[in-house]
Amino acid sequence: MEKTELKDKKEVITFSYLQNRKVKLMPIKKPNSWRQKFKVEKNGSEINDAGFMFANAKSWITVPLDRRTGLLVSILDNTIKHRTIEYPSIELTEQEFFEKTLGLQEGDLDANKTRTLPDGNRIPDSYFKKNPVVLKNEAIELDLGRPHDMLNFKILASHFKSLIAPSFEEQNKKSTYRYVIMDIDQIMKAENHKLKIEMNAVDEFNLIKNDINKMLEVIWMKDGRVSESTNIEYVTTECYKIAKNTPELFVSIIKSPFREVKIVLLRAVKKGVISKTKEQSYRLRDGFDIGTMDIALKWLKDPENFDRLELIKDQIKLAS
Question: How far is residue 46's CA from residue 278's CA, in Å, rounded to a whole number?
Fold first, then answer.
């Protein structure tokens, strides 16, 4: 965070050890996958059927041990001081901030704090050992604007290299990941985007559901080959499956600027007008190679090749 100054030289504090965002800790169905199936229980919890934990099981997680020293890793800085939005009149380290905000004594958040017994023996007395984060087979929401939740988040973040994936995009990077941190705003945006795509796919399907030829073209575009059928019920079902199961793909097919020329290419291959080589390129009857799929589509769409495209269409009709 930054500090700015007004004209009267009064300092405006903008720094905070907290964050204005909410996240969810979500169990991963199993390593290297994303197949959560949540169901809402009466208490509002989102229960997940993750394979590595029973439905009502719990586990506890605290800060990890340093492999070199055998001591708990310190997750709070206790050297650099800042004035914060919450305490603008004093400078506090990160550890001091959380101790003050949570009503703890100075040094209570030392990762390896000890306590002296009446007999003079010293025993471990770490806050983190006594206050682990409870992990369940359900989503856990954390408000990082709240000190306790932010401290729990920092405990979870200390396991980003082993147990907890720091983001949805990174959850498949390690087979050891069992949970993933998801930003709630990002979840909402992703869900809204998904819903819009699904609704768009349904709208586009409704526009072509009575035209067997257009539905067939969608199937051909998806499969990459021509397959004839006059069974309207079968074609409608197969086309709807594409719209329902892969709405983004369906919409991209409908909106593709290369849709028309790709259909021509697929028909030409079906009729033997264009051949496909072992190198996956497409070759005209005169031996001219127009390249692999992406290059071939651009070649067919190029206005300079209009006459050749029309010739290919004529050859398809003659081969029918």
Answer: 51
153 and 274 in a single domain? The answer is no
Burial of 243: CB neighbours in 10 Å, binned 0-12, 13-18, 19+? buried
What are 271's two structure tokens?
Answer: 């009729």
Q: Strand, helix or coil at 206?
A: helix
Chain segment 217-252, per-residue pLDDT in tens = 999 999 999 988 889 999 999 999 999 999 999 999
pTM above 0.85, yes or no: no
Look up residue 108 and give its two tokens. Answer: 């209570």
Dihedral-angle region of residue 89 (phi above 0 means left; psi in -120 to 50 means alpha; beta otherwise) = alpha
C-alpha span between 276 and 232 (Å, rounded): 30
Residues with Cβ within 8 Å of 144's Cβ and at least 6 positions away in sequence, in order, are 18, 19, 20, 21, 22, 23, 150, 153
CA angle 260/254/278 to nearest 5° reads: 55
Q: Give the domain extent around 287.
A: 257-320
β strands within 154-298, DSSP E: 164-165, 179-183, 275-276, 281-283, 289-292
- The CATH number given to whatever domain includes residue 276 is 3.30.250
